Every structure is written in C-alpha cells, then in structure tokens.
C-alpha cells in the first residue's frame, strides 16, 4: 500500500472516529436565548411561512441514524482532506483539518435543522485552530503559510462581515464566525484553494437555495425565511481544498497559483 493511500485511509478513520462523538456534543450544547417576535413580514401578497420553533439540541442529538450519518460524513470528508494535503504538499495542515471535520459535521447538521451556527462550538475552535496551524507550519517548515492563513481570515471573514452588515437577514453572524475559521484553513492551503473555496460556497448555495424555492412555489407553499448557508460554506471549502489548485492551474494555463 502506497503512503498516499495510507494517509487517506488514516485520515478517513480518524475523522470518522471523531465525528462519531458529534451527537454527544450536540446534546450538551446550551440553548440560545429566544429571539424577539417579528411583527412585520416582507412582501405584499407573498406571505412568508411562520417561523418554526427551534428544535432543542437534546432532541436533535437523538435523531434516528444521526451517529451513522456523522461517521459516514466524517469519513468522506477526512478522506478528502487526506487526499488534499498530499496533493498540496502540506502534511502539516492535516491535524487542523481533522479538527475541522467533526466541527463541520456538527455545524452542518445543526444549521440544516435550526438555521443556527452555535457560537459555543465556533468560538473555542479559534484558539485550537491557531495552535494547530502553528504546529503545521513547524511540520511543513514554512512560516509563509501562516501569512496565507491570516490573509484567508481577513478575506473570508471580512467579506462575510460586509455581507452581514449590508443584509443581516440574509447572512447571519454565525456565518461570519465560520468564515474566519474556513478562511484560515484555506489560506494556509494556498491562494487557489481560498479563491475556489469562496466561489464554490456561493455557487453551491445558489443552487441549493433555488431548488426549495422553486419546489415550494410549484406546490403553492409560502416562502421560507432564507435557508441555512453554513453547509454550503463547509462543502465549498472542501471543494477548494481538493480541486482548487488543479482547477485554477487549468483555468490560468500555467503553474500553480498557490
């Protein structure tokens, strides 16, 4: 068995094992403060569906088949991360990615069900990720990767912050917090993963958001209040890591942009 295949398998197994703990973590999350009721709704003659009560985290954690889904999602994402660091020549990035996989699985599930990205999960991830990226720079023997991580944090975090300030109803602050984490990882990986990951998130989000809108309109159902964007941010980041370098290289017709 070649070393690159072994790395992918080990990354998949480690990520799957860590992701198996996601239901336990979700069950222990503190509930957010209740939001004030909204008196006015947008649109005349185009009613919005009333907001559904938030599902308690303890109930979310007991969903049938959740642990199996988390393990499978974690294994797939872990394998992709193992492949990415091998192709990018950034083995030092793997520990940070393996930390991000179970976090991403948990956030994607919670956001899909509640349209929330809990700060109780995201805030502690910042110092942990910074420490792992510092370790990665030592392993990779390059301090310039940290400059890339800082640039990624500024670019993605700054962009999502602007979107939040311009249209807070469409881009929550949880998305801003998550963007900072993803920006650091993608920036460490290189310019190509950062750019492709950013673009992929919005492309996937546009498609994923359009489908339910069309479906509800065809069925004559009222519009919903936005849709969870966190899963598309996470999936877009994974796309950027895996295909960012070869895709941008092919588009530019030259050497790697990372």
Calculate the mean pLDDT score and round it: 88
Radius of gyration over all CA atoms, rounded: 19 Å
Q: Pairing-aware structural class of the strands and helices?
A: mainly alpha
- Helical residue percent? over 70%
Using brief descriptors, characterize the structure shown.
mainly alpha
Descriptive account of the structure:
There is one protein chain. The protein is mostly helical and 258 residues long. Helices cover 71% and strands 0% of the residues. The chain has ten helices and no strands. The protein has helices spanning 3-19, 22-27, 57-60, 66-88, 94-114, 119-140, 144-166, 173-189, 191-218, 230-252. Helix 4 packs parallel to helix 10 and helix 9 (191-218) packs across helix 10 (230-252). The protein is globular. The model is unreliable at 37-49 (pLDDT under 50).
Topology:
Blueprint: H1 3-19, H2 22-27, H3 57-60, H4 66-88, H5 94-114, H6 119-140, H7 144-166, H8 173-189, H9 191-218, H10 230-252
Please outline what is shown here:
This protein has helices spanning 3-19, 22-27, 57-60, 66-88, 94-114, 119-140, 144-166, 173-189, 191-218, 230-252. The chain has 258 residues and is mainly alpha-helical.
């Amino acid at each position: 068995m070649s070393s690159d295949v072994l790395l992918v398998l080990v990354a998949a197994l480690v990520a799957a094992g860590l992701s198996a703990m996601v239901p336990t973590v979700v069950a222990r999350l503190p509930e957010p403060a209740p939001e004030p009721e909204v008196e006015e709704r947008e649109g005349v003659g185009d009613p919005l569906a009333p907001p559904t009560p938030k599902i308690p985290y303890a109930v979310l954690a007991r969903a049938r088949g959740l642990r199996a889904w988390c393990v499978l999602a974690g294994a797939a994402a872990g394998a992709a991360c193992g492949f990415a660091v091998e192709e990018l020549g950034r083995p030092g990035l793997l520990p940070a990615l393996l930390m991000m996989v179970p976090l991403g699985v948990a956030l994607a599930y919670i956001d899909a069900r509640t349209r929330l990205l809990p700060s109780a999960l995201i805030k502690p991830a910042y110092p942990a990720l910074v420490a792992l990226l510092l370790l990665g720079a030592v392993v990779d023997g390059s301090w310039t990767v940290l400059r890339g991580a800082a640039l990624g944090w500024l670019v993605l975090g700054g962009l999502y912050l602007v979107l939040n300030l311009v249209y807070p109803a469409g881009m929550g602050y949880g998305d801003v917090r998550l963007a900072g984490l993803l920006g650091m990882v993608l920036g460490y990986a290189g310019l190509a993963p950062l750019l492709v990951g950013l673009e992929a998130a919005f492309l996937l989000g546009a498609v994923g958001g359009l489908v339910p809108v069309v479906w509800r309109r065809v069925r004559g159902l009222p519009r919903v209040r936005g849709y969870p964007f966190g899963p598309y941010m996470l999936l877009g980041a994974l796309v950027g890591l895996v295909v960012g370098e070869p895709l941008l290289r092919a588009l530019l017709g030259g050497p790697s942009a990372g």
